[in-house]
Design a protein that fits this description.
The protein contains ten helices and ten strands. By secondary structure, it is of the alpha/beta class. It has one domain: LigB-like (Protocatechuate 4,5-dioxygenase, Chain B), CATH 3.40.830. A hairpin with a 2-residue loop joins strand 9 and strand 10. The chain is globular, with a radius of gyration of 17 Å. The two termini are 13 Å apart. Bound molecules: 3,4-dihydroxybenzoic acid and fe (iii) ion (FE).
């Protein structure tokens, strides 16, 4: 059977992708950001997943405001890096895992979560920046990402957006789906977006280190309580785009302890301000079974 070996959480700030693509990662402004991922790159090299289930949000790139799925699962064989206005990022095509994605869709929908099935979709910085942070730069033409990726897009852009509680329950359904797949695959689940950020209006640039870190503490130690955080708290405390953090609760809900198993090990935790106008948060939790 397939199993979830670990969950990875990271911000997906587009300027991080631009810094990598433009060869600026060693500059004094960016060096501390990339330093925070050095351990992670080594860790994932030593414990490579067979598939990554990558929870992110589309930023009005693949889905316009004409059509906004709350939860969308990418079932295609491949996904092109999107052109977000400056041409596509120079990163490899993202290969999917249609068989596992179809199985997860079947299982999760039968488990009463309504998913949108996506058979063609370009993927934006929400998905490609986390891949670059964890795997480094890859040749866009001759290179490849190390494993297939199942994109899972969550609407956190246009209200109403799903609650943290709903996301946490969905993570549990995704774990049941993965653990019922009849092939011995090692799957990682990633949650991306956040942390503090407000991109527009009078509060643009809002950073709340204390709230971000208390939220991280609770995500690790008491995820069910963390999942009860109301929307208004994210927006008030972490800025309007801080709401992206509900996606981390999908990954956390898929961990073994939530279903009565052993607590995960915190392999790595990192927090840094600033990157662009935002805080960067990163966490790796490893399952212990
Ligand atoms: C920015 C955009 C994002 O989608 C995000 O998650 C963080 C920062 C930005 O435009 O700076
Ligand atoms: Fe974002």
């Amino acid at each position: 059977m397939a199993h979830i070996s670990a969950s990875v959480y990271t911000s997906h700030v587009p300027a991080i992708g631009a810094a990598l693509d433009l060869g600026k990662s060693a500059e004094p402004y960016w060096q501390p950001v990339f330093q925070g991922y050095e351990y992670s790159k080594q860790w994932i090299e030593e414990d490579k997943p067979d598939v990554i289930f990558l929870v992110y949000n589309d930023h009005a790139t693949a889905f316009s405001l004409e059509l906004i799925p709350t939860f969308a699962i990418g079932c295609a064989a491949e996904f092109k890096p999107a052109d977000e206005g400056w041409g596509p990022r120079p990163v490899p095509m993202v290969k999917g895992h249609p068989e596992l994605a179809a199985h997860i869709a079947q299982s999760v929908i039968q488990d009463d979560f309504d998913l949108t099935i996506v058979n063609k979709m370009d993927v934006d910085h929400g998905l490609t920046v986390p891949l670059s942070l964890m795997f480094g730069q890859r040749d866009p033409v001759h290179g490849a990402w190390p494993c297939p990726v199942i994109p899972f897009a969550v609407n956190v852009v246009q209200y109403p957006v799903p609650s943290g509680r709903r996301c946490f329950q969905l993570g549990q359904a995704i774990r049941r789906a993965i653990e019922s797949y009849d092939e011995p695959l090692k799957v990682q689940i990633w949650g991306t977006g956040g942390m503090s950020h407000q991109l527009q209006g009078p509060r643009a640039g809002l950073i709340n280190r204390v709230w971000d870190n208390a939220w991280l503490d609770q995500l690790i130690a008491d995820p069910a309580a963390c999942a009860a955080t109301p929307h208004i708290d994210y927006v008030r405390e972490a800025g309007s785009e801080g709401i992206e953090l509900v996606m981390w609760l999908i990954a956390r809900g898929a961990m073994a302890d939530v279903a009565g198993g052993p607590a995960p090990t915190v392999k790595h935790r990192f927090y840094h301000v600033p990157a662009s106008n935002t805080a960067v948060g990163h966490l790796i939790l490893q399952n212990n079974r």
